[in-house]
Design goal:
This protein has 13 helices and six strands. With 323 residues, the protein is mainly alpha-helical. The chain has one domain (2-320). It has a two-stranded antiparallel sheet with strand order 1-6. A two-stranded parallel ribbon has the order 2-3. Helix 7 packs across helix 8 (161-187). It starts with 7 loop residues before the first helix and ends with a strand.
Length: 323
């Protein structure tokens, strides 16, 4: 039993949420974001700007970690604080936090088995990998669901009225954020391109590299020790900025543990997990090299819409909310 793996007193301590920890990390990330944006705006050299954009993309990618742990209500003691922080950072990503929260809770209930909201499938070629790395399918799919929710259409995993209402509200906020971003882009095209759009795309690509490592090439099983992957070869900077997201298997075992306590779980239980790799870089490198060795340069087969009770894409069917 999972509940017997760690003594109750220590488990209660590990689950303890610290408002100061969440505040310090988020304040630091926002400060880094502001400094890098000012640097990009102030420097004229192409190479220097490019390096700063890569750094900014790396930092903005941590916003995905923030909305992830906010969805689990493990950043702050207040559920309301978690949800509004999640909405705020989701809006910067032009993404619907409330939709993601319900989507992600479904994923945790049915990780890698029938009912999992995360699509199932495999990278079939180098070209397919490069396209997936853009993360456009994820963004457009969630944008589509946000627009449809305004008209009372929801996917199967959003059933509760309170969740539907929250998604609708967040959808309106996302559409406003997109509208404002487009207007600012028309007014200040080069500034928005260099300071926002390019780093945002890099952030989405960084996020893909992380997620495919955490859930790619795993097992379809409800066993929490075998259905996700953690990584040990990360730097202290990555661990701080990305909220220990490399300890993903530990997180799936105890989803409500705040991110700064996941290293304690790794110390106690890390040896039990079947998939504990060295680094994200090595995982992605080996995946690409395997495709090259098999001469899989381009093309992909169209999988069936459903594979063992899971969708093979993000474009979920929707139904109209009951009156």
């Amino acid at each position: 039993m999972i509940s017997n793996l760690i003594q109750r007193a220590e488990l209660l301590r590990i689950h303890s949420i610290s408002n100061s920890q969440g505040t310090i990390r988020i304040a630091t990330i926002l400060t880094l974001t502001g400094i890098l944006m000012i640097g990009i705006f102030s420097i004229s050299g192409y190479w220097q700007v490019g390096i700063l954009q890569l750094m900014l993309g790396f930092v903005i990618a941590s916003f995905f970690s923030i909305i992830h742990y906010a969805a689990h209500a493990s950043l702050f003691k207040s559920k309301m604080a978690n949800r509004w922080v999640g909405r705020f950072f989701g809006l910067i990503l032009l993404s619907n936090f409330s939709l993601y929260r319900v989507f992600h809770m479904q994923h945790h209930r049915y990780t890698t088995v029938a009912g999992d909201s995360e699509p199932v499938g495999e990278i079939q070629s180098v070209a397919h990998y490069l396209f997936c790395a853009l993360n456009w399918d994820y963004w457009f799919a969630f944008f589509r669901l946000s627009v449809l929710s305004v008209f009372d259409y929801f996917p199967e995993f959003i059933q509760k009225n309170q969740d539907q209402d929250a998604v609708q509200l967040n959808s309106v906020l996302v559409l406003i954020a997109i509208f404002v971003a487009l207007i600012l882009t028309l007014l200040f095209p080069m500034t928005l391109l260099t300071v926002y759009w390019i780093p945002l795309q890099l952030a989405y690509t960084f996020n893909f590299w992380l997620v495919i490592g955490e859930h790619g090439v795993g097992e379809s099983t409800s066993d929490s020790f075998r259905n996700t992957r953690s990584f040990s070869g990360t730097t202290p900077l990555f661990q701080f900025v990305h909220f220990n997201s490399h300890l993903h298997a530990e997180h799936h075992l105890y989803p409500s543990v705040p991110p700064w306590n996941l290293d304690t779980l790794e110390d106690r239980l890390g040896f039990r997990f079947d998939y504990h790799d060295q680094s994200y870089w090595q995982f992605n490198r080996d995946l690409i090299l395997d495709l090259i060795r098999r001469n899989r340069w381009y093309g992909r087969l169209n999988p069936p819409p459903l594979i063992e009770g899971r969708f093979s894409h993000f474009f979920y069917p929707v139904t109209r909310r009951a009156a």
